[in-house]
């Protein structure tokens, strides 16, 4: 059995650490993991591997339901060997190092983040000291801020924090009221962005909502723009925030509650997308089985 890592908060935000190939433990941290992937992780990895998001998810991930909220969580699928090694690690280290997931960049730190208010997020950093890791015996000094910049995490955190209002901004009891179809939508909008792009462009979505042509042009080719668009859609369709303007002919009742309007349009667009998928032969089912890395 692998010993559990020692986790400790970093109140002064200073630590000493270095990782390099000369250490006997090099790449041992890349095995036997429960490595949670974020939206931006998947964008970077699938583009590097020249795969669609759906193909990447099928080949390299497993999906579970979060115990508290019921929302889908995607984890990297480890190799089926004795060590359960990462599929992207080799004898010389990470083969996708320049697009490695945010949790790998952050290691040996951990980050807990949540949405405190509409315009403010909260975060806490802590150290993750695994028994095998010799990097803690190195003398290189860091502040948390220096480490984040050195590892390219400022961009990752900024992109992934777009979804904090979805994952931490609502009480778990509210999220647990979401039905299977709504959870499938969360899965597609958060993880399967290429599928979500088809959903927007090949359903009645554009017909129902007022969307600027420049926005449509950007989401056709820019995954980061599509990621922000998907976040807006989830706020509208699941939580009733009026982040989209409905065209007049689709507003059946102007006094309709926002939450009801969001979910009604969600269901109608899903139906149109499934009908379109049936005609084109493309699948319309989104698999859901019932920022962190841990063992």
Give a verbal description of the structure.
With 295 residues, the protein is α+β, with helices and mostly antiparallel strands. It has 2 domains: 6-167, no CATH class; 178-280, no CATH class. It contains 13 helices and 13 strands. It has helices spanning 39-48, 53-60, 102-106, 144-150, 153-160, 164-167, 172-175, 180-190, 193-202, 205-208, 213-221, 223-239, 258-280; strands spanning 6-9, 14-16, 34-35, 61-65, 72-76, 89-90, 93-94, 109-117, 120-129, 141-143, 209-210, 245-246, 293-294. The strands form 6 sheets. It has a 3-stranded antiparallel sheet. The protein is elongated, with a radius of gyration of 21 Å. The protein starts with 5 loop residues before the first strand and ends with a strand. Mean pLDDT is 84; it is low at 254-259 and 278-291.
Outline of the structure:
The chain is an alpha+beta fold and 295 residues long. It has helices at 39-48, 53-60, 102-106, 144-150, 153-160, 164-167, 172-175, 180-190, 193-202, 205-208, 213-221, 223-239, 258-280, and strands at 6-9, 14-16, 34-35, 61-65, 72-76, 89-90, 93-94, 109-117, 120-129, 141-143, 209-210, 245-246, 293-294.
Shape: elongated
Round the mean pLDDT to the nearest integer and report it.
84
Helix content: 40-55%
Q: How would you describe the oligomerization state of the chains in this entry?
A: single chain
Structural class: alpha+beta
Q: Report strand order across the widest sheet.
A: 1-9-8
What is the β-strand count? 13
Q: What count of domains describes the coordinates?
A: 2
Element pattern in H and E:
EEEHHEEEEHEEEHHHHHHHEHHEHE
Radius of gyration: 21 Å
Largest sheet: 3 strands, antiparallel
Amino- and carboxy-terminal Cα gap: 10 Å
| Unreliable segments of 5+ consecutive residues | 254-259, 278-291
Structure annotation, total helices = 13
Give the percentage of residues in beta strands: 15-25%
